[in-house]
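Hey, I was hoping to borrow your eyes for a little while. I'm sending you its amino acid sequence along with the backbone structure tokens. Take your time with it, there's no hurry, and the full record follows here.
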Amino acid sequence: MNTRFARCTIALLLLSLLTFAASAELVMVPTRDGTELATDYFLPEGDGPFPVVVARSVYGRGAGPMLAKGLEKQGLAFVVQDTRGRGGSQGKDWVFADDGWGKNQDGADLIDWVVAQPWCNGKVGTWGMSALGITQVLEAGASKKIAVQSIGVAASDFYSQLAYQGGVWRKALCEGWTKGQKNGYIVEVWQSHPTRDAFWRDYNLAARAGEVTAPALHIGGWWDIFGQGTLDNFTSRQYHGGEGAKGNQKLIIGPWVHGPVKEVGDLVLPDNFIFDFGKYERRMYAHWLLGADNGIAAEAPVNYYTVGDVTRPDGLGNEWRTADDWPPFPTDETAYYLHADGTLNTAEPDENAAALAYTYDPADPCPTHGGQNLLIPAGPFDQRKVSGRDDVLKFATAPLDAPVEITGRVKVRLFVSSDAPDTDFTAKLVDVYPDGREILMLDSIQRLKFRNGFEKADPLPPGESGEVVIDLWSISLIFDVGHRIGVQISSSNYPRFEKNPNSGDDLPTDDNLRVAHNTLYLDKRHPSALLLPVRPSNGAQ
């Protein structure tokens, strides 16, 4: 349902631009290997040449007239192209493989073609959300002729943010989306590269940020499938980008899934949940494409939303903030230790041996209930539907007598063992409301054999204990007075993540499933903890 709402919201944003636009001119634009890609261009009234905004789409060129009309009001031309093998374009669709800086560089080729047209004045911007945001991210690493970009909800690194979060196949996202796009054959290709090998090098823009020269607006959400990607796209380019990109990035990140919706998960957000990023985008184009001195370059580069108790309109958080950097202020990484009695607090565990064990059966995995999803329900759902299972370990603080504000990256450090050749460990950060609801804020997973890095497997011998760190990505959140901070540990979250067969194999089959008996250690030598980026005591506001 949330995905449907998100799609409707994006559709309404597009439809708000809908009036009659000039007819498209269709051109088959050649790429460097001779493949021709279907491309429509729309010119505003008046004498050119014009600045141009470009979009490269896997979803077809049908929205071109709507988008063109909105841009025409600014005096901007618009070009929209079907990516290789999609719509009217020739070639084979290898799902972003030809859009970046590899053998084929279709995005850069289109930019070159546009710049060479008599109706273009040499200023080219790009636009798009989701898959159209990803094509922008890739072409930014291949072309130095882009004047500005507006990038919505896009990954910066395919391996860790799209295909293998924590080294685990993102089943629902990858298989569901490619099936809908009728290019599911790419699944076999991606699954044949379960480690961070050379294959993924051409899909990691953060590592190529120094080659990027374009200013950009980055738009994302805390509960979006690419939430961390939005932040990494911004930070890598803002602080390590090439000339023109460094220092010229903008960030808008809100309490959103893959688009802004008021009823998200089991929460109803305050009315201020929305941000007029369309207006902000127009100001970016006006400055970088039209030379307008509108002050946007001097404004704080970061706009972010701090989540609070949504039932308390006058409570802490639930507000937009601005900042000069990301993270916006220094934080103290604070360890909230997991204790065998289910408590969670900052008191270090004692020397007495303590552990909790559970059985993980891949034939009966813990089902997904919310989180950073696309084609299954997404967002901050109440976890009581699944948290009572025998294979879920729950920890929570006492009700807070003072607010705790966190902003930045959240991690969970666990000391564990398993009797299986390999297994996974999952973690969920939950905001336990005074009425008992366990509202999911962040969740993630880590494959045990990749605990020391994703370049190669390093299995933990059965029965031996080892340390594993689960990266839950980032959020800005205030746990208000009376709330409890919670963390929940298990070994599956299916189908958000593929289930581990516990056999040492990367993927489950009909005959490789085995039960794992997993242990979590909780003593002074094994201080398992939730690691929160806490704002100093003068902080919650």
In short: The longest helix spans residues 2-15.
